[in-house]
């Protein structure tokens, strides 16, 4: 179970970086796709915020402590913060890259959870994976 918790905390850290990247994209987007992407980025960061809370609560349910400081997130995350990006295609490319990484990690957490007979965590990850694979398809299609 401790491997699952460790991986959930890493996933939590990555989600915090992803979330903050999305906020930056939302705030700084410019160009002809502004109206379309500004709204989409808000949808994505609201979804990420919900998942951050659910992941932290799952860690607490497993009787562990979720990471909860920015220094911890930066130390444990594999995703990197980005800044000063305002072009739509560049923002969406980063989102695709980040989501691809998150799905890969969610699959790892799901596998560890299944191995330790933790069906609730496995189900949580399965739902995230299903949703985000569809989101990836859409954003990849947007890129062309």
Which terms summarize this structure?
80% helix; globular; 5 helices; mainly alpha; Ferritin; 144 residues
In words, what does this structure look like?
This protein is an all-alpha fold and 144 residues long. Helix content is 80%, strand content 0%. The termini are far apart. The model has no long low-confidence stretch (mean pLDDT 97).
Low-pLDDT sequence parts: none
Distance between the termini: 41 Å
The shape is globular
**The CATH topology, please?**
Ferritin
What is the C-alpha radius of gyration, as a whole number of Å? Answer: 15 Å
Mean pLDDT: 97
In percent terms, what proportion of residues is strand?
under 5%
State the domain count: 1
In DSSP terms (H or I, runs of 4 or more residues), the helix count works out at 5
Strand runs, count: 0
The CATH architecture can be named as Up-down Bundle
**What is the CATH superfamily label?**
Ferritin, core subunit, four-helix bundle
SS-based structural class? Answer: mainly alpha
| Share of helical residues | over 70%
CATH class: Mainly Alpha
The helix/strand series, from N terminus to C terminus, equals: HHHHH
The largest sheet, given as strand count, sense and whether it forms a barrel, is: none
